[in-house]
Description:
Chain A is an all-alpha fold.
Amino acid sequence: MSKYTLLFRAAFGRAYIRVKGGNKEPSWVIWEVFLPLLMVSSVVYAYRMLGAPSEYIGFVVLGGAMVSFWFNVIWGMGATLYWEKETGNLEVFMVSPAPLEGLLLGMALGGMFNTLTRALSIVVMGVLLFGATFNITGLLPAFLVFMLTMVALYALGMSIASIFLMYSRSGWRAAELLQEPVMFLSGLYYPVSVLPALIQGVASIIPLTIGLDGIRLSLVMGYGIWELRHHIALLSAMIPVLMYLARRILHYMEVKAKREGRLTLRWM
Amino acid sequence: MHSVKTINLSRVFKRDDGSIVHALDGVTLSVNRGEIFGLLGPNGAGKTTLIRILSTLLLPTSGEAYVEGYDVVREASKVREIINVVSGGERAGYGIMTVRENLWYYTQLYGYSGREGWRKVDELVELLGMEEFANVRLNRLSTGMIQKYNLARGLVNDPKVLFLDEPTLGLDVEVARYIRGLIKRLIAERPDRTIFLTTHYMAEAEELCNRIAIIHRGKIIALGASDELKKLVSQEVVYRVEVKGLHSKLVDEILERKLAVTASWKSDIVSGVTVLRLVFRDEGDAGRAIEWLVKSGFTVTSAHRVEPTLEDVFLKLVGVRLHE
């Protein structure tokens, strides 16, 4: 059996657990759908009060939707690995021939089911409650940019997970350290163009910034694939680099954890 | 060919205070294919460390280890395909999912297709007699049920080498007996399978294992079949002595006075009797010890020579008793 078959089967198995397990507790709908709307609403009202152009409503709604995927990467992939370790599931996984990337992919895909629900709910509620308007013709380029962004974010999630793999609880600090700055730099609730040029430069190496900008341009401004070619090219270039780095980091941390006896060490 | 082989295997841990612990210290052993091999040792002796290295979860500090000929460091993925590990008291799994759903997830880690996975789950449910609770959530299971589920999980890939780390720990007599029966069956049905077992229970090791190694402070201090190990105390004589009353310090006094080579005790609170198990160099020493007990005012209700057990061997070699 090829390594990739094993990877995808392991990922499918873990995603099944996450989706089925999550739906055994339907209360998640409240947390995932209604609570995130509060943040989006507060930003929308702030823009309305300031008399911002109506496109800004769409910007904010899309930003609110996309932040869910960033949270899924940090907490759904990274921090979940911490819990896998604490409950002894990681130990069982590591004894199997399935690659660790499969477990992480499964957690990401499984988490994406809930995240997608959250993101779509925010968009639908944004349209219904705040009158956000989107350009339907931009759906295809938006989907393409979205998928590329997700793959790049998965690579980032792998790197974050490797911190949890090695340092367990201390990994929370690193995840928190990443959460807010990335939210700031990716322009979740405003266009990045309002930031100083230097900060824009830093922000442009974050896939979420490029992805979000591309999705906004296609769904709000109606840009087509050709007009988004730079976004697509940048994300496409980022993916192999981030993937390579993530796999190297993950492998390094796995070996280091085995050497230092931390791989299965609990209560850390 | 050996199923498991270690050569001068060592593992050192560094504590937070900078001190060094030699969890394994030059362990060399070979386990034959088709064997149930037992590893006996007190807490902290290095049993779990050895299993972790053999199951690729931990890297050795030095030395070599092979499972079915594969190097556990350089060929870890090959090793993982043919092994599995089950630990006593393990609670791995997803509490909100049922036994069947959890087992199906594990089939995916070994590359079964979705349908094949469910078929394998049905097979394991039948093998382990889990029909009654197969559709029950994991967080609702009793300790005995959990351990059956753990064993089913360990058999998902039909492993060539199965590591069982204290598999009957904390189980009631009936479930423990069932699991011992299953272990025997696993070897009987597939004679090329190897089972590497660690246990605290002497009787379990004696009942199940073809050969037993005793590990103490990271070193293998004895290795052989149960009868061979018992020969290590064949020069000595073993006595079972019953003394009226509960005397927890009596053994210490006997050893301080060098009246016996090793001594262990059990108190029966209900009958108010202390049962001593004393190993002497010869009959003369036994007579002197019993005489001392009587002279010291203890009421000796019975004293008779018994056959040596693994417990006596362990006590002689390690100096402490494995608590049963």
